[in-house]
């Protein structure tokens, strides 16, 4: 047994200690040595990387998980923006603060570059296991590359392109450009006007005269061919330099897709490592970062305003997500909630700032209207509510349930009100609530229903929030705009409500 354990531990090492050298292209262990600095300078000759060389050094398990979580937050926000059909400029406004906080590449700090490099390869391990996860990861990472590329200066962009050595990335001669000048200008004139905001004809002509063009096979930029944004001649596409990002992104996407398939073939070799597999499973499960949303912020927006009586006020209930509204309506109607709904609503109210004394008053008053006496309430329910606040039993400070936890619970049966309405309600009931209760237009309702049909319930909830609160650009971005927690919905809604009240006064 000892020998087997010894072999397993030895097998976990990612480099040959006996060599004692730093030769080869891999990321080193320990402090920032000169060899390690040189390696990262080669990997990040620009502020971006294609991640072509896998890391072979050692990092701590804490770094392994935390770095992956930070990158996952960014990718999930990007994926949510894609699903919500956000234009590129609005997506950049949403994601840029998150990038600066979690994955900044604006400095030459070695640890920041190391975090970016390792986190990419860690998430490759997480999302290589199925075609759906691979497609999402490639789409999100490619979009991240585009966003970062557009944030670079023109000098840094040119420097990055030179490091790639991509095939077919060759500029045409001035003579060839002169021969095709009429066709080239007619093709890109619209893009110069709408993408670069060059509304004046003289400005567009001057820009065209200085612009360089790349000649490459048309299949490398099929998306631009379909939109008639490049000139085609004899099977070759003439791509202006300001649109070279499309070719770069396609090459990166193709490279990453191939790498993910190879990674999936090597995943079985990790089966003996009982440290990494639980972390990888936790990160990749459902491609959902709802567990990683910081919950310490919950309750700040209300600041003691939620009591046993004020919780029924229109001002407070206006900020409730649909799941909380459903449980409150059920409580008002039948004056009782079954166990799952009691748990879900208790933790939600606790998260928005209701104290334990107010919670006791709130539940006892609600149940009393249904004929439950104070004696019966104290005997059958009081202990459970106090336990949820950490005052009984093991005295655990339970957190409010996030969307992932709610969706993992059993679906509600007749007479139950817990769960997620976007998953549990039929189309007619959900349509009626969205159109009449939340005043959404038919187009908006159809957009939400499309996400519900694709089982993207948190995306549907995020869309509803944006449609009822003036759009995503109206939200102060602290961590994520994607709603993956009922209390996050309430916090942001209450903040905007207070902001409107302050402006009115």
TrEMBL record:
Co-factor: note: Binds 1 [4Fe-4S] cluster.
DNA primase large subunit C-terminal domain mapped to chain residues: 317-490
InterPro entries from the UniProt entry: DNA_primase_C, DNA_primase_lsu_euk, DNA_primase_lsu_euk/arc
GO biological-process terms attached to the record: DNA replication initiation; DNA replication, synthesis of primer; double-strand break repair
GO CC term, one of those recorded: alpha DNA polymerase:primase complex
Region (Disordered): 1-21
Keywords: 4Fe-4S, DNA replication, DNA-binding, Iron, Iron-sulfur, Metal-binding, Primosome
CDD domains xrefs: PriL_PriS_Eukaryotic (cd07322)
Cofactor(s) annotated in UniProt: [4Fe-4S] cluster
Annotated [4Fe-4S] cluster binding sites: 323, 403, 420, 461
Ranges of biased composition (kind: Basic residues): 1-11
Gene Ontology MF terms: 4 iron, 4 sulfur cluster binding; DNA-directed RNA polymerase activity; metal ion binding; single-stranded DNA binding
Domain of life: Eukaryota
General function of this protein: DNA primase is the polymerase that synthesizes small RNA primers for the Okazaki fragments made during discontinuous DNA replication.
Protein name listed in UniProt: DNA primase large subunit
Species: Lachancea lanzarotensis
